[in-house]
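Anyone else keep sequences and structure tokens together like this?

Example one:
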Amino acid sequence: MNIEILFIIIITSAIQSIFGTGVLLFGTPLLLLFGYEFQFSLQILLPTSILINIFQLKNKLKNVDMFFYKKLVIYSLPPIVLFLYFISKQAININQVIGLILIFIALKDILPQIEKGLAFIIKNESFYLIITGIIHGLSNLGGALLSAIVFSKKLSKDSTRATIAICYLTFAIIQIITIIIFIGNSSFISQINILYWSIGIFIFLIVEKIFYVRINEKKYVNFFTGFIFCIGMFLLFKDRI
């Protein structure tokens, strides 16, 4: 077992256990930073993300914003398939653009102008979801924009996490299918990978029992604001690390 991968799995699984996203969002660039290939990273991170999201949705499907989820399936999934195939041929870096967008959204409660801008974005939600699909296919960072748009809806704590979890779960499943069918990499299952995935589930169970249940609605909103802002800063400056 590799200590760097283990550390990344533990940290990102804890983040995803609270917010519904994080394993792919942070795990992908961190593994690349340590010199691992993109395809290898997906073999470890995609199943870990899927399993955590499945556990998050247990007995929580009633909390999902189904209207939003149906729109996401229609508008985001086709671009993911198309651009994931494209990125297997040509790499593109759009981290800083996404980082700026997320910082902009995180500051919505401070600057009224941003609140008005978000209202406009939500009115054009279909276009936003198409862009989210394109970005996720290209960079694995669609979870950032997904978190931002769901957060802007001001849902309850459980609805926010459940909606993000089912959307992120769908993203990961369609990525695995695309990789196996169109890119030809089907070597996901190995003893060491299964061990990493199991650690992700273990971390979720700990975080769920000890931390998540103790976070009230107000704290969750504050934590999520900080989460969105930190993602933005991370993406904005990670290429300079």
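And example two:
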Amino acid sequence: LPIDPELPLKAAVLFEPFVVGTRGVKGLKQKPGDSAIVFGAGIIGMTSAIMLDWFGAEKVMVVDYSDFRLANARRFGFETCNPATEDLKAKAIDLFGSQRGYPDERCGARLYVDCVGIGAVLKNFAALAPRNAELAVVGVHKEETAINWTQVCFNNWHIHGTGEGANEELLPEIVAMMKSGKYDLAALVTHEFPVERIEEAITLAAQPDQAQKV
């Protein structure tokens, strides 16, 4: 794919994760005034959050257990929550307001992106999502997870997978975002290694409290 020579290297290297995040986000029927919650502050979670903001989301909150990654998310202007130390539902209602739902009160954020791929994320979605909420499942779930289909039915939730879009189709939109200067994308690249230290780099990349994009 042709990469615009005006793009800084640390932006260009993020094209592939931005494709993943963009696919998931574009599958959501985002409307003016919508707010969103992204589960996961890794590189896919951050690209998803940035593209939600780029497409006009009113507010975006990123949820993760890594304070290191959440601190980086706040640098981009996103709200954050660490469920290990904060009440996720209370914070979401305080930030997005509340709505009626089944079987109890829900927060006002309508769009959700799962960039983690664990059952706890779907439980959190089920506790937060109001009627007509949409969930993009971008994280790869390794285990089967139970879903309360009565909640899906009565809340009229819409759940879809990682979305569609060839790299070539998404390239112009992603490059436009990168060239806009709105986001300090270099801040997502936390470490650099020479290629001969690739094993060390891959090991570090798996440490959420130390690295984001290596």
